[in-house]
Design goal:
alpha/beta, 9 helices, 16% strand, 3-stranded antiparallel beta sheet
């Protein structure tokens, strides 16, 4: 039996991190955890309950009332996130969440809350997790760290197609501005900024198919197990 390892996938928004993470988890029969979904679900809770995230007391009280877990979708076979027992997998993909999640993710208490849960999920290994600081902060000792990147124009087009399916009124300029804002916040925040771990391998998926990126990633895995 092959040993199980922890695989982290970090990178910019709309670089295909989730797609690759899901592919790898399925191919290896590992557990996939979308760390970004956790921050989006927390943001959703804050917005629904009118939590002022600039107020430390309100944030701490809100976090005490948040329970997050991932459950498999029997039809698709993929894991989906639940917020206090409610499936919010699709609600959290709305643009209003995307516009606020980077702000919420900069809050120290929020990151401490999420990282503690993420580390617990990885205790038994056999896990693929994607996000912004998974290889640098959450699992710095992970056996395989992948850092994904892609051409900015391609990232905007991918994100636009994804959001347009949900909201035909959205414009590509709105998507471009949102990505630029998120990139800046993610890479300049004081706590756990987005950066490539020194021992991470870079995967640029600007001009390759999902099948090709999976093949490359599986090659990285074989070197580690």
């Amino acid at each position: 039996m092959m040993k199980k390892i922890i695989i982290t996938i970090d990178g910019w928004s709309s670089c295909g991190k989730s797609t690759l993470a899901k592919q790898l988890a399925k191919a290896l029969r590992y557990v996939y955890v979308d760390s970004g979904a956790m921050y989006r679900a927390i943001t959703l809770y804050f917005l629904r309950n009118m939590v002022d995230w600039t107020k430390e007391k309100q944030v701490n009280e809100a976090l005490e009332n948040i329970e997050l877990d991932f459950r498999p979708n029997e039809k698709s076979g993929e894991t989906e996130i639940y917020l206090n027992g409610e499936n919010v997998e699709y609600v959290i993909r709305d643009l209003i969440i995307a516009e606020k999640v980077s702000e919420v993710a900069t809050i120290k208490a929020v990151r401490t809350f999420a990282v503690a849960q993420q580390r617990k999920m990885g205790e038994k290994k056999g896990i693929v997790m994607d996000g912004r600081d998974i290889g640098t902060v959450v699992f710095p000792e992970a056996e395989l760290k992948i850092f994904m990147t892609a051409d900015n124009a391609i990232r905007v087009e991918r994100r636009f197609r994804e959001l347009y399916a949900q909201n035909p009124n959205i414009t590509i300029e709105e998507v471009k501005n949102n990505l630029e804002m998120r990139d800046y916040i993610d890479s300049h925040r004081a706590i756990s900024p987005l950066r490539k771990a020194e021992d991470a391998v870079v995967l640029d998926n600007s001009n390759i198919t999902p099948e090709q990126q999976l093949e490359l990633a599986l090659g990285f895995v074989k070197q580690k197990i």
